[in-house]
Task: structure prediction
Amino acid sequence: MRIDLHTHSSVSDGTDTPAELVRAARTAGLDVVALTDHDTTAGWDEALDAAPDGLTVVRGMEMSCVGRGEDGKPVPVHLLAYLFDPNDTSFADELARLRREREARIRLMAERLAADIPGIVPDDIIAATGESAGRPHLARALVELGAVDSVQHAFDGYLSTTSPYYVDKVDTPIQRAVEMIAAAGGVSVVAHARARKRGRILDPDHIRELVAHGLGGVEVFHADHDEPDTRFMRELADDLGLIATGSSDYHGANKPLKLGEHTTDPRQYERILRAATGSTVPS
Ligand code: AMP
Ligand code: FE
Ligand code: FE
Ligand code: ZN
Result:
């Protein structure tokens, strides 16, 4: 069984539609794929409807949170959520708030960029963002205008957290997010906790503290974790009895990652299925 539990479609900052993504997942030899768009479940129905024979589509999401960094200061954290009830009202309201934050923030960044880069039109960028606006949408616009030659160079030159064009957004405190996901019957998994190239990282002690609040697991195998950090995360998961996942974080043409580049052990996937009560996987 080949299981990839973290992918993005054009509903957020990937480039494949949900239907294209699930077909590509089967072609890549996957048996299970989770669609985990940023702060939205809007792609679920299309992905489930288009699932080819032999592929199980898991309802998922990647939620924008804030945690405590190694230096004690706030740091952005991505929290994967699986098989929660999308009709849980307080959770759905919080996700809608996060999407409004995203749009307002991308508009502000676009306005700052437009002052220096001819051709950036904030309204056009927002119109192309799907349900959930993200910096990769700005990156693509910069590539299309010829301001940079790749999405990665757009991040390096214009979009990183230290860039003058960067604008913060107000994300959900991770402890509250863990509790909300549990209350909605879902399973929470901290994504790429040691992705250092994106900036400062989460204090591992904060992960320990979240266990008592219902944290389900951590992503161990991920392209942004080098070998020592992969080992660190595996030991942390063992130590805390957390589910250990692995995944591609596929974004279509927005990143060089391939579907199934990293995968999740079937026994770990079974633990997610057993713990979740908010929604089911198609049988
Ligand atoms: P946002 O959700 O707007 O904060 O953008 C975050 C997304 O941009 C992540 O999900 C990644 O897909 C991508 N990203 C963040 N940091 C980097 C980076 N340094 N290089 C390339 N992509 C990045
Ligand atoms: Fe993303
Ligand atoms: Fe992420
Ligand atoms: Zn992701």
User: Anything to note?
Assistant: The chain has two domains: 3-96+169-275, 97-159.
